[in-house]
Specification:
Order of helices and strands: EEEEEEEEEEHEEEEEEEEEEEEEEEHEH
CATH superfamily of the largest domain: L,D-transpeptidase catalytic domain-like
Shape: elongated
Structural class: mainly beta
CATH topology of the largest domain: L,D-transpeptidase catalytic domain-like
Largest sheet: 5 strands, mixed
Helix content: under 10%
Strand content: 35-45%
CATH class of the largest domain: Mainly Beta
Number of helices: 3
Strand order of the largest sheet: 20-19-18-26-21
Radius of gyration: 23 Å
Length: 345
């Protein structure tokens, strides 16, 4: 409806029961609070307002699609309702089967992110099985987020998407971590002020740590890494940074090297006391930057959304009409899930 905005919508089913819902902020669409029933007739009364303030009302009936046959494509939203996250928290939606290119725009159209206060953001496709939303700059501390995915029943490549998701979360204080290989130090900033400096040991020359802009993906008080039946390692105060297993963690065995030499297999080694401080004060979603290791972070190896410029990130949206989208990255991003068997130390 060019030049017009939806003012109100009343939707009822065949028994005259009203369906609750809400307008999108741009007034271009009304979204039901819950999925509509399959193969059901509804009556809609829609009032729109044009640029001159003139109102008009349209009444119509429609019938929803029959329930699709076959196995659904399962989607997972990596956001927990009620949780508090760091200012770099991306909103990741994963699928257990590929989404064809000709369906991606429709998927995005059904995704809604509301932030209070409002902040500009965009979705970006990593391959065919994950789409991730980030704001133009880090979230403002205290932001309230509401995410809605109205995907249930959407036909995709002869199958259909499984269900809708909703989540509401909060962004906490601003805390960022910056590790520099040249100094062998990790600096911690809260609200852009330096609050802590810790000596570290990064990856040895033959197993360098990734350098780039990362985000804390998981936090574990204790993690058991299993390399084989005879080779296992338990570490404390661990924060996951990459999908292939780089962590910040306590490494009491390398305290003598911390601040002086790089001896790890790629992880950021801290003393037990320093690692405990990081664990007790960090949040999933806190940004972590590592500089100067000689090995750059691979796109999609974890939540790498902040390692891409805003302009390039926006090109990854299927809704950018007429824009040249970059080719899918070779590695699909990994979400917060158990690490692989082979881990760095």
């Amino acid at each position: 409806m060019p030049g017009k905005r939806i003012n109100s919508v009343t939707l009822t089913d065949a028994t005259d029961k009203r369906v609750s819902g809400a307008l999108r902020s741009d007034g271009a669409a009304w979204v039901p609070a819950q999925p509509l029933a399959y193969h059901t007739t509804y009556h809609a009364t829609v009032t729109v307002v044009d640029g001159k303030g003139t109102r008009s009302t349209v009444r119509t009936n429609f019938t929803t699609m029959p329930q699709p046959a076959g196995d659904p494509i399962v989607s997972t939203l990596d956001l927990q309702s009620g949780a508090t996250y760091g200012v770099g928290m991306p909103l990741a939606l994963r699928f257990d089967a590929p989404i064809p290119d000709d369906s991606k725009a429709e998927v995005e159209h059904r995704l809604s992110v509301t932030s209070d206060p409002p902040q500009t953001g965009v979705w970006h496709w990593y391959g065919d099985q994950q789409v991730i939303y980030r704001p133009k700059s880090y979230w403002q501390p205290g932001t309230r987020l509401a995410v809605s995915t109205k995907l249930g029943g959407m036909p995709v490549a002869g199958r259909y998407l499984d269900s809708d998701h909703t989540a509401a979360a909060t962004i906490g204080r601003k805390m960022t971590f910056r590790t520099t290989d040249a100094t062998k130090r990790m600096q911690v900033f809260q609200n852009d002020k330096l609050v802590k400096t810790f000596p570290v040991s990064l990856g040895a020359p033959e197993t360098p740590s990734s350098a780039g802009n990362m985000v804390i993906m998981t936090r574990e008080r204790s993690v058991l890494w299993v390399y084989s039946d005879d080779d296992q390692l338990e570490v404390s105060y661990a924060e996951q940074l990459t999908g292939d297993g780089e962590y910040i963690h306590a490494a009491p065995w390398s305290v003598a090297d911390q601040g002086h030499d790089d001896v790890s297999h790629g992880c950021t080694n801290l003393s037990t006391d320093d690692a405990a401080w990081v664990y007790n004060n960090s949040l999933i979603g806190d940004p972590v930057t590592v500089n100067g290791t000689g090995k750059h972070l691979q796109s999609g190896n974890g939540w790498t959304v902040w390692d891409t410029s805003w302009d390039d990130y926006a090109k990854g949206s299927a809704l950018r009409k007429g824009a040249d989208r970059p080719p899918a990255e070779g590695q699909a991003p990994t979400g917060p899930k158990p690490p692989p068997m082979r881990m760095t130390k």
